[in-house]
What we know:
Blueprint (H helix, E strand, L loop, with lengths): L12 E3 L2 E3 L6 E5 L6 E6 L3 H20 L2 H17 L1 H12 L3 H22 L4 E5 L5 E9 L3 E4 L7 H13 L3 E4 L6 H12 L7 E3 L5 H10 L5 E5 L2 H12 L4 E5 L4 E5 L5 H13 L9 E7 H16 L19 H16 L3 E4 L12 E4 L6 H4 L6 E7 L2 H9 L6 E5 L3 H10 L4 E4 L18 E2 L4 H6 L2 E9 L1
Parallel strand pairs: 7-8, 7-10, 8-9, 10-11, 12-13, 12-17, 13-16, 15-16, 17-18
Antiparallel strand pairs: 1-2, 3-4, 5-6, 6-20, 11-19, 14-15
Helix pairs in contact: 1-7, 2-4, 2-5, 3-4, 4-5, 9-10
Bound molecules: nicotinamide-adenine-dinucleotide.
InterPro entries: Ald_DH/histidinol_DH (IPR016161), Ald_DH_C (IPR016163), Ald_DH_CS_GLU (IPR029510), Ald_DH_N (IPR016162), Aldehyde_DH_dom (IPR015590), Aldehyde_DH_Superfamily (IPR050740)
Pfam families: Aldedh
Keywords: Oxidoreductase
Amino acid sequence: xxxxxxxxxxxxxxxxxxxxxxAGGATFPVDNPATGQALIEVADxxxxxxxxxxxxxxxxxxxxxxxxxxxxxxxxxRVEAALRDRTDEIALLITLEMGKPIxxxxxxxxxxxxxxxxxxxxxxxxxxDYRLAPTGLTRILVQHKAVGPCLLITPWNFPLAMGARKxxxxxxxxxxxxxxxxxxxxxxxxxxxxxIEESGAPPGAVNVxxxxxxxxxxxxxxxxxxxxxxxxxxxxxxGKLLLARCAAQVMRTSMELGxxxxxxxxxxxxxxxxxxxxxxxxMRNIGQACTAxxxxxxxESLAGEFTSRLAKRMGALTVAAGxxxxxxxxxxxxxxxxxxxxRLVRDALDRGATVETxxxxxxxxxxTPTVLSGVxxxxxxxxxxxxxxxxxxxxxxxxxxxVRAANGTPYGLVSYVYTRDLRRAxxxxxxxxxxxxxxNSGVVSNAAAxxxxxxxxxxxxxxxxxxxxxxLDTTYAAIPV
Length: 481
Ligand code: NAD
């Protein structure tokens, strides 16, 4: 299979405004998941590079703070415009290193640009407030200031959007950063950093560390004491390790972690809408999204019809390399993801699940969209984050049963509810232990919304008014009258 040519992209580290190789010159390959072939080699940062990067961020704090809110907003607007202008080039890069269909990559570029636009406006709204002490004798002036240098760690599944959700509010708040992208997809972050640099960011405002040894490089940055905040998006397992490490420095943290989204279809749901929403919530990003519907919990009276319609739609999707016309389902990210997909299907079948579509052997990293019904409690795919195009269907009779099943997980990122009854919808929104709910919608995320989870899905929010607050400290002055 021959892939389109790789767009022009930096392959070295960005530290203090200089593009430079890793100390010692080490590199590591970045694969195209559709072909399994290496696309290019990028710099493999070690501990000395990591320390240089966080020092460069700390050195840039003053230059960034010297920019007025209007100047920071204008910088973010220029980044937004450049992303929109260069959509085709960036989308191709995302598809080549991550695998998703090109139409979805274009959507990701637009989504990332939205965050630069949103936080350009938020940069202008960093305010404070004035209070009077109960005695009436002291005025209190509350201010919000940049927390300081930030370490931003992103996963591979949305190579542009996850960086955008962190860098845009960091710049808006006046925080310099070190961005550490996932080793599977460093290229999009390098290109984003170049675009931010070309848009006029002060040297050192954004530094990029690509590394195949994340534990060492990240550990060095945290232990340096120079980073004042960590914003991490990735698995709950790694998030817990990093929380423990940050505790020693008493660092601020935002954690966007794993999910196990329930998708509840009530007996009064509009079936057409529910199937459409299910397809979106399950298949976006080849099922490799923290917001992916992981468990379908369907009213018994509708289950047969819902299952056969969803299976028909999922079975008709075009599985092909993401750059090919008409591709709707690209490859999984790596061989381990394919092995996990196969293991989860086998386990469900061993426990008596019925195949409605799919469940055929993978070809390379391309797996077939699969729907399984009659999935028994205790089946591994109900407990684990699937991260692939696999839809397990379970049924319920009473609403409380659906809520109990939906909440029966350590995760609490997003839930989906389909019903035509407003009261039922509001009741479910209230009783689901989750950070976000899609009510008759298979998509919840946008720049204005405070994206994030409860329980082991994380701490903090990205987007909305809340997004910038994660990068601001509160200080006040007490002024006797
Ligand atoms: P991951 O946890 O393996 O890796 C995430 C990042 O952490 C990568 O940059 C990786 O290099 C780094 N990392 C890995 N081990 C590390 C260590 N020991 N020390 C320091 N850094 C380390 O996750 P992934 O496989 O890249 O991404 C998939 C996961 O991300 C899923 O669980 C998914 O749900 C989650 N995710 C969550 C959100 C959200 O907003 N809640 C969004 C996207 C993805």
